[in-house]
Amino acid sequence: MKPIAIVYTSNTGFTAQYASLLGGETGLPVHSLKDAMKTLPQGSPILYLGWLAAGKVQSYDKAVTNFDIQALCAVGMGECGSQIEDVKKANRLPEGLPLFTLQGGFDLKKLRGVYKPMMLVMSRTVVRKLAAKPDRTPGESDMLDLFQNGGNRVSLNNLRPVLAWFEEERL
Question: Global pTM?
């Protein structure tokens, strides 16, 4: 079944940016989960984007209860395509659900709620650990840069696998 809309939950805006880019590329309407609950019929087929916190896709449970999720994009700090098995396990995703992990970014000033102090502690730990590591991978170096300087890694290029899936679904 083809998705009729893109629905997302965002905390610092990176997931919202991906949703907007996807909407522009696919022509599908884009809704925050809160708005989708008011405007889309229950059970509508959607493409859902949620941000990651400790491997959990935020508001996935709420989205899957109300809509028919055709594919899931999990937005976090890790490299695109990483953490797939961890995200599947942590969220108990159904077998066969297309899952895409996308690198968003990090902006401590935009974090809200308990996530801000939690990420402040985590960033200090990660920076100390990665800065001391002499043989960092490019991904680890990028993670160190994100934690030290913040940054936005959202790009249309990161969405290529999602867009390829979407095109395949339309055929």
Answer: 0.89
